[in-house]
Amino acid sequence: MEEISWNDFEKVELRVGTIIEAFEYPEARKPAYKVKVDFGEFGIKMSSAQITKHYTLSDLIGRQIIGVINFPKKQIGKFMSEFLVTGFADENGDIVLSSVAHKVPNGSKLI
């Protein structure tokens, strides 16, 4: 494992946002949803996530998640992702979202 400096970590904008909309993403190569997330002062951003095994669209609305909001936009098929949804792979490789245990203001930074 490569070590990074504290300054490297401080550059990563890991922020909390609330999912306000979620959509099917049938064009994706692997099963995925599109999500629209409110990051407070950083605005509303869209991304896609391969989270269909553990979540339904209705499960996602109102859920606070952690995203990296300072990566450049990334073209994913015909869709432009504006942030990285974070999560962990379970024992089957299916993604479980990173989230917070208690509600915090949208845009809060992971410290």
CATH class: Mainly Beta
What's the number of domains?
Answer: 1
- Look at the structure and give the mean pLDDT: 96
Order of helices and strands: HEEEHEEEEEE
Helix-strand makeup class: mainly beta
Proportion in helices? under 10%
The fold-level CATH name is: OB fold (Dihydrolipoamide Acetyltransferase, E2P)
Shape-level CATH architecture: Beta Barrel
> What's the name of the CATH homologous superfamily?
Nucleic acid-binding proteins
Number of helices: 2
The stretches of 5 or more residues where confidence is low (pLDDT under 50) are none
Query: Nearest-angstrom radius of gyration?
Result: 14 Å
GO molecular function, one term: tRNA binding
Keywords: RNA-binding, tRNA-binding
Organism: Pedobacter chitinilyticus
Protein name: tRNA-binding protein
Can you tell me about this structure?
The protein has two helices and nine strands, in the order αβββαββββββ. The chain has about 110 residues and is mainly β. The chain has one domain: Nucleic acid-binding proteins (OB fold (Dihydrolipoamide Acetyltransferase, E2P), Beta Barrel). It has a five-stranded antiparallel β-sheet with strand order 3-2-1-4-7. The protein has a two-stranded antiparallel ribbon with strand order 5-6. The chain has a two-stranded antiparallel sheet with strand order 8-9. Strand 1 and strand 2 form a beta hairpin. The longest helix has 6 residues. It is globular. The two termini are about 20 Å apart. About 25% of the residues are buried. This is tRNA-binding protein.
